[in-house]
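User: Some background: our group keeps a shared notebook of sequences we're curious about, and every so often someone picks one and asks for a predicted structure to add to the entry. Today it's my turn. The entry only has the sequence so far, pasted here. Could you supply the structure so I can complete it?
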Amino acid sequence: MSDLIDKMEAALSEALADLDAAADEKSIEEIKIRMLGRKGFLPAAMKEIKNVSNEEKPLIGKVANKVKTELNNKISEKLDALEDSGSAVDGIDVTIPGRQRKIGKKHLITRVIDDCVTIFRRMGFVVVDGPELEDEYHNFDALNTPADHPSRDSQDTFYLLDGRLLRTQTSPVQIRTMEKQDPPVRIVCPGRCFRRDTPDATHSMNFSQIEGLHIDTNISMADLKGTLLMFAQEMFGEDVEIRMRPHFFPFTEPSIECDVLFRNFKGGKDSWLEIFGAGMVDPNVLTNVGYDPEKVTGYAFGLGIERIAMLKYDIPDIRYLYENDIRFLEQF
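Assistant: Of course. Here's the predicted structure to add to the notebook entry:
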């Protein structure tokens, strides 16, 4: 039965020579299939072992194991060599520079929210969050919004079939916090809001707000003015000024709008731009959450994150912030 042994050794020698000459994975795989595949040389040779004597079978089996082991070792070595050379895959030009992994960064809206939160935290405010899907009580009733107020109309607010709605402001977070916590309260509430606005350069159906609330004893309009001034100077620079104008909000009394003076604004002129809506918390709101308006007072304020971003980074259209054009976002 030496002829079978000779055939196996000859086939091994031929396969090892072919492996030395192989230049890619495809050639190596073909050699492996030819020698070790289900219909390859070695399985076919082992089928002939039934025709030999019992004395010869161990010797032939030993040679067959040697062929299989040497061939597998050689195949592994060849594949490793090809991988190290960078040419293991057909069609790859190993002289082309590799792809650089780009490091991501925060979206501009997220960055502005973080900047606002950092400023307010230095003033002692705590960040709280709440649901974007709200009920009418927390979004309107508890905030002293009358039943006939235009903002409660379905043309202004997104309602669900079960009567719930997408919050139109982050003020409901203030209500939920006061329901759970006795004074003092000093919080800011950043988050997304939703209104049925027609999208244009300055309006969007979804937008981001950050609102603040400070409830304690002897809180006055002077405290509110100091807070807004400090924020404006921290965000836009120490040379900015603020002015407060009378306004109306259902949940504050008195209510104000606060403008910020930007020096050398577009075109080099000094310009007053409205940034904040604010005021002293209406006593009815305090009563709704179980506070005694005779013992505590407070102020609330709100500002739009997109408006801050547009002013700070000179962005002409709010829609740029949501189009996810990488050419635009990479600038920041």
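Suggested note for the entry: The radius of gyration is 37 Å. Strands lie at 126-127, 133-134, 165-166, 185-194, 206-216, 241-249, 252-265, 269-281, 297-304.
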